[in-house]
Every structure is written in C-alpha cells, then in structure tokens.
Design goal:
Radius of gyration: 27 Å
Membrane topology: Multi-pass membrane protein
Distance between the termini: 105 Å
Organism: Deinococcus sonorensis KR-87
Number of domains: 2
Family: Belongs to the oxidase-dependent Fe transporter (OFeT) (TC 9.A.10.1) family.
Protein name: FTR1 family protein
Shape: elongated
Largest sheet: none
Number of strands: 0
Number of helices: 14
Strand content: under 5%
Helix content: over 70%
Subcellular location: Membrane
Structural class: mainly alpha
C-alpha cells in the first residue's frame, strides 16, 4: 500500500510533467488511403519510364504514410503488417531492378487488397455493410432462382398441354444437372481466379465490368415484355423439337441449357459480390442461405398454384435491385483499374464525407471523380432506358373504331 502514492506520483509526472504536447492522433484510414493513392501513382510513373520518381513515390507510400498506420494495426493483425512490409519491399526492389510492369501491377494489386483489409479492420463493419452484403447475397440467388423456377414451370406446362407427361422426368434430370454444373462452375471459377497470373485488382475490374454488362442487359430484358415473349417463343420452339423426338435426353438437354444460363450468371455475380463483400463475406452467405429457403417456398407455391401465383409483381423490384448492383459494380471496376495503375485518379478526399470502406466496396461509392462519373453515366443510361421502355409499353390513347 505504501507504493500506491509513489505510483500515482509517477503517473501524474508522466502525464503532465513533460513540457511537450501529446502527439496528435493518427487518422489511420486516411493514411492507408493516401498510401494506396501513392502506390497507384508510382505505377503510372513507372509506366511512363520515370523509374526514379516511381521508386520515390512508392517509398513515400510506405515510409510517410503506411508506417504511421502500423502501430494500431500491429496490435490487431500483426501477420498482415508483416506481409505488407514484404510486399512494399518487393514493389520498391522491383522498380529498382527494372521489373516488367505487369509484375509490379500484380504486387501493387496485392498491396491494394491488403490496404483495404487493413482499413476495414480499423473501421469496423458497422450495420449497413453487413445489411448490404446480406441483401446482395439474397437478391442474386433469388432473382436467378425465380427465373429458373418459372422456366421449369413453363416447360412442365408445355409438356402437359402437349400430353407428353412421360417426359417430365427429363425436365427434372436436366434441372438437377444444371444445378450441379453451376456448383462446379463456382468451384472452378474460384480456383482459377486464385491461380490467375495477373493481379487481383485487374481480375476484380474485369469481373465487375462483365457483371455490369450482364446486369444491364438483364435489367432491360426484365422490363421489356416483348423480349420476354420472344424468349418464350424461342423456348417453345426448342421444346417442340425435343418433344417431337420423344427423347428424355433431348428434353433434359433443353432444360439443362435453359437453367444453366441462369446458373452461369449467378456464379459471375457472386464472384463480383464476394470481392466487394470482403470482411463481411459471411453476411453474403447468410443472404444466400435465406434465398435458398425463400426459393424452396416459391417452388412449392409455384407448382401448387401455378399461374395464379403473382410472380410478375416481383420483377419491378428485382429490376431496381439489379440496376443498383450494376451501378455498384461499375464503381468497383473503375476503382480496381485505378489501383492497378491503368486509369488516372482524381481524389475527392476531404471534399466528400468519409464512407466506411465496407460500405464503399458494396456500393461502389469511392471518393474519386472517375468512379463517381462512371456511376452517374450508368444511372443516366438506366434513366433514359427506363423512359424509353415506359414510352413503348404505355397504352395508346384513342377512340376505338
């Protein structure tokens, strides 16, 4: 007990006895973002042939910014810090040795992924990011699964109308084969992406832009009743040929190709969403699990009540969500190209309010002019397309003869 006053005295002297002011707190997320921008800048300088400037910029990214963010991160995830130290060193050494630009882009892409992970660690997940990841996980599978359910129902209805019920087994075999092929496609795609000889940033960019193109076409396909009718007519023609052959294999193959297209789209969308989800990836899988349960209910109701089930009312909502994902993915795609050094960066840090990095990844809202312009342009295209579709589908006014 006698030592207590001495300990208190030393504590007071430590806190207040020094004549120096306490160091200002470090804005760790800001330091990590600045380090990322400098890494991207160094790649562009290297691509222009200015290796000395590229080396100095890469060194500044580490020494002047990342090192200031190290102390709290070293406590939270020391392995990540050690890994990033090696990667920064590889980037600087590669620039000094005159390594190929593609090799440096791969290293920079790994650094960018680690910096985003570090920013997510210090920022936390919050509530909005898990909610967005779960919503995405649910919506993608539910939309594609609902489309597959409607296709199966249409095929079965066609067989019933043509009095070829004996071929129903081929429909179920084709659907099961399509589900298995989709699962295998997911495994193979995940494996190949991990082994790809290019940077994760470039893979993320390409995957995101492909997903945008598919989502864009899907959005307007869902809105245009005429295209749906043409698709249905094409499917009936294929089924007609398969039914005429009287072969279970032909019916199964027709079902397989119709359903697997939906599965292939699902794999593509989930690959892009998985990259965006990052630390909240488990919430994406949670949404996926809920979608499986919801689809089981939809399947049961659909095959119990058939056409009386108002599934068409779901499509306008699904179109809106699909468009939102396309806007998010194009923002992430442009940002990934920036981090790989393929596109310029015009920062808006300090101009726009900060966004949680997990939310930013899931919405595609990054504080650069290029990403926001790309998202705005896509929104304008969606708006123009929606107005055109609405004008075409609006009933014409007039007096009947």
């Amino acid at each position: 007990m006698r030592r207590l006053p001495l300990i208190l005295t030393l504590l007071v002297l430590t806190l207040f006895g020094s004549g120096h002011a306490a160091p200002a707190p470090v804005d760790v997320p800001a330091q990590l973002r600045t380090a990322q921008e400098l890494v991207s800048t160094s790649l562009r300088e290297y691509a222009r042939g200015d290796r000395e400037a590229a080396f100095r910029t890469a060194r500044s990214a580490y020494l002047d910014h990342f090192e200031y963010a190290e102390p709290p991160l070293r406590v939270l995830n020391p392995d990540l810090i050690l890994e990033m130290e090696y990667r920064f060193a590889d980037l600087r050494n590669g620039m000094q040795a005159g390594a190929p630009l593609t090799d440096l882009q791969r290293i920079a892409g790994d650094i960018g992924g680690s910096l985003r992970t570090a920013e997510a660690i210090v920022s936390g997940t919050g509530v909005l990011a898990p909610a967005l990841a779960a919503t995405g996980g649910f919506t993608i599978l539910f939309r594609e699964g609902l489309e597959a359910a409607l296709l199966i129902a249409a095929i079965l209805a066609y067989l019933a109308s043509s009095r070829n019920g004996r071929l129903r087994a081929g429909v179920w075999w084709g659907a099961a084969a399509a589900a298995l092929a989709t699962a295998l496609t997911w495994v193979v795609a995940t494996y190949l992406i991990r082994l790809a000889p290019v940077s994760q940033e470039l893979l993320s960019a390409v995957t995101s832009l492909i997903a945008v193109a598919v989502l864009f076409s899907l959005s307007f396909w869902l809105l245009q009743q005429g295209d749906r009718k043409r698709s249905a007519e094409f499917m009936r023609a294929r089924l007609g040929r398969a039914v005429q052959s009287g072969s279970l294999t032909a019916i199964g193959l027709a079902t397989f190709t119709s359903i697997y297209r939906e599965g292939l789209e699902t794999v593509l969308f989930y690959q892009a969403l998985a990259v965006a989800s990052g630390p909240v990836l488990n919430y994406m899988y949670l949404g996926l699990g809920v979608a499986v349960l919801a689809l089981c209910a939809v399947f049961a109701l659909l095959f119990r009540f058939g056409r009386r089930l108002p599934t068409a009312r779901l499509f306008p909502l699904l179109v809106g969500v699909t468009a939102a994902f396309a806007v998010a993915f194009i923002g992430n795609g442009v940002r990934a190209f920036q981090e790989a050094g393929w596109l310029p960066v015009t920062n808006l840090y300090g101009v726009l309010p900060p966004i949680n990095p997990n939310v930013s990844a899931l919405t595609g809202l990054h504080p650069t002019v290029e990403t926001l312009v790309a998202q705005l342009l896509l929104l304008l295209v969606y708006l123009a397309g929606w107005l055109m579709v609405r004008a075409r589908t609006r009933p014409h006014s007039g007096v009947r003869a």
